[in-house]
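Hi R.,

Here are the chain sequences for the assembly we discussed:
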Amino acid sequence: MDTLKIHTQTVTLVDQVEDKFLNYIKEKNLHAGDSIPNELELASALGVARSVLREALSRLKMMGMIETRTRRGMILTEPTILGGMKRVIDPRILSDDSIFDILGFRIALEIGICSDIFRNITPEDITELEEIVKIGTVVGNNEYAPVSEYTFHAKLYEITGNKTISEFQGIIHPIMDFVKSKFKGLLEPINIEMKKKGEIVTHTDLLNLLKKGDEAGFRKAIEQHFEVYRRFLDSRK
Amino acid sequence: MDTLKIHTQTVTLVDQVEDKFLNYIKEKNLHAGDSIPNELELASALGVARSVLREALSRLKMMGMIETRTRRGMILTEPTILGGMKRVIDPRILSDDSIFDILGFRIALEIGICSDIFRNITPEDITELEEIVKIGTVVGNNEYAPVSEYTFHAKLYEITGNKTISEFQGIIHPIMDFVKSKFKGLLEPINIEMKKKGEIVTHTDLLNLLKKGDEAGFRKAIEQHFEVYRRFLDSRK
DNA sequence: TTAATCTTATTTGTCAGACAAAATAATGCA
DNA sequence: TGCATTATTTTGTCTGACAAATAAGATTAA
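And here is the predicted structure of the full complex:
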């Protein structure tokens, strides 16, 4: 009956040390800026070799939780929540399913920030968006020049004032480009179809709604702006 | 003039190896399931000691990108996009600012998934939600018993059919609990005030709107459901 | 011939020790 | 006291070793 273990989850010493260390700082109530014992002390306190400890610490360094300087020892730093994500968010690494999930995630988030945008937007933001739209040339069916496409949406995220949301958009962006180019053949017919029916929502349309202060209209427009991806995602199920 | 470097961004060998390895699998177009050379080969190919290579690989193992079994070598696995996040999402590790960002992130996302919910919801989902609401006892001002609170919202995320979104909610949840308990003194007055004015939206209210198929009403209600946190976040700026 | 068992070889996981480089602390000198 | 030099500490990197697990091959039994 002990053949139930599915994944032979061999918990290595490194895994345990990583866990123990995280518990250690939680229990000791240590925060960013606090210094922690040097490697030799930590290793002997945990009863492991320095190499094992270093493998565990290496993980936390990747997450931006630890900063080291020679001789000055190690100090805790505020981890970047999305730091790990940055490494693996790459179309060449992820499966299509994951990519579609991320696409859906991003669309939902951008719809969800509408009320934040209207709560925080300033006249300066509007003029900045006007500049961005002015520069942005439409290069195809519902397709903007890449730079403008990115800056327009990045600006929307920025208006929320939420750094994590902004960072998320930055990390996710390559995925959007990838989907656009890889599935161009599938997206274009949808765009053309929508254009024929006059269903396309441009950045200019969005900006006008922002200027008018029409939150409900803006939200509907944003949803419509992503409608091509919605239909694409639905077609992939 | 070369004192401009702010962060003494000492790029260690481990950092470089991590980068090189990621580029390696991208260029070779390797995917989950593919096997990769053993440690000795990789180390010598990269011109570094095994310990350095292992520190880099350890990071990728944490992200779920690599799985190892003795003698069978290493194989690539589909990374869990949020795997790294899981480690650091802890109120005892993050600063208040980060926590508030995450709170805002979560609220935006839940508002954003409204259309996904209405697109995918089934009668079975409705009955399941009814069960959850039935079990959930209101324990205070706009406060549900923790289990019901969690399962109700988790179910909403699940309905989207987007695994990444669901996983995100699971990871974020401890933050919600933390905010509720740590800032109880600030949240309760807002809740009482809202209750007095009849502005509270309960899970039952949300469920009824779902049953009616009233998407616009549901979205408004969800926003209202989170209004207490909105006001709280605004008060912290 | 086939099945079960034993042996071998390979690969990861862990340990120990060493040295270089960098940066701080301590010391000596003007 | 202020500056230059030296010593010391700590991380970063390398080398080499062995244990444990297990796949593959060899051997034996039915």
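Chain A touches chain B through 58 residues (CB under 8 Å). The CA atoms of residues 133 and 167 of chain A lie 22 Å apart.

Let me know if anything looks off.

Best,
T.
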